[in-house]
């Protein structure tokens, strides 16, 4: 399923190497009190031109995009937020990868046959919805058409250029005030579309672990309205 990153070059190899740097994933995610539901998300990178590369060595981070979606504003959990495709594990799912692929196909219409799984990342707590989430890192070998399948759950599906996410001008620290406390986390402003919360924290950690992060100013803070 995955190859030795020492034998590879380019963005795919850097993603594989990032999965070995588990210390980079120790972000301050709020803890969950009590039992939590298992869930998975698909963190899917592909080439911007949608044409499979002849070799992985010619693909660098600036050539990539990542698949994201916007959740419906009417949902009870994380309404209106930008997220990775994914959801709660169901009884028929054999493992975290199966959950991520099933949910991604249901939400975006992608063809799982064109998706290469690189690794499953350490579980992360998502206290806001009482889930423990496994990010499934993947590479889009054969990109397929994507669109929102069920508008009651997803209103938009889009591929965001990684170079745009890495641009320091798009980055800021989001602030949320709850119950007398202020929560801060990484965020991205993509032409007015705000990526924050769990999704932004995963991207931030992955970019750091892959060595892609460009220096940005975390002292720039902006409140996020829920």
Question: Could you explain the architecture of this structure?
Answer:
By secondary structure, the protein is of the alpha+beta class. 18% of the residues lie in helices and 33% in strands. It has helices at 11-18, 96-108, 162-166, 197-210; strands at 37-47, 64-71, 82-83, 86-88, 115-120, 124-126, 131-140, 154-161, 171-178, 181-190, 193-195, 221-223. Strands 1, 2, 3, 4, 5, 6, 7 and 8 form an eight-stranded mixed β-sheet that branches. Strand 10 and strand 11 (193-195) form a beta hairpin. Helix 1 (11-18) crosses helix 4 (197-210). The longest helix is centred in the last third of the chain and has 14 residues, at 197-210. It is globular and about 45 Å long. Residues 1-8 have low confidence and may be disordered.
